[in-house]
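User: Here's a structure from my thesis project, written as structure tokens. My advisor, Dr. K., wants to see whether a designed sequence matches the one we expressed. Can you design one independently, without my sequence as a hint?
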């Protein structure tokens, strides 16, 4: 096994989730296939970075899975019990924080500069918590 391909994220509506992840977070829509039963196979992924062959093969993507029943609907926005459950790395924290803020992303705190990098917690459109994180590296350390 060489990589983790997808993580399922339960959403209320395909189109509103696609709009948030592509417009507000800048992800690429990799696939949106009608499955013929009212469901769709929808994959979004952060843009391919340097050295990646294509967006379709670059890093882990999100499978946006519409809730199908009451149990799944109750988990929309709370898939990790209120903890930060998703970590979005950036190579330019200030740029991406400013772009996301301008796009209406709700940050729950001011940016922090920790020994491991620059970070701020934000919520997606459903309330799932994410870290925007620029890890410390030799280039930006």
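Assistant: Designed independently from the structure alone:
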């Amino acid at each position: 096994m060489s990589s983790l391909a997808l993580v399922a994220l339960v959403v209320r509506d395909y189109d509103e989730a696609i709009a948030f992840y592509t417009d507000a977070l800048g992800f690429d829509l990799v696939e949106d296939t009608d499955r013929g039963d009212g469901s769709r196979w929808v994959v979004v992924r952060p843009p391919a970075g340097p050295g990646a062959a294509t967006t379709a093969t670059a890093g882990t993507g999100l499978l946006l899975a519409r809730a199908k029943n009451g149990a799944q609907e109750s988990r929309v926005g709370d898939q990790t019990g209120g903890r930060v459950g998703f970590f979005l790395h950036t190579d330019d924290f200030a740029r991406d924080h400013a772009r996301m803020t301008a796009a209406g992303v709700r940050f729950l705190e001011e940016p922090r500069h920790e020994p491991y990098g620059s970070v701020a917690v934000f919520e997606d459109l459903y309330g799932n918590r994410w870290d925007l994180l620029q890890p410390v590296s030799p280039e930006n350390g």
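When you compare it with your expressed construct, this may help: The first strand starts at residue 6 and ends at 11.
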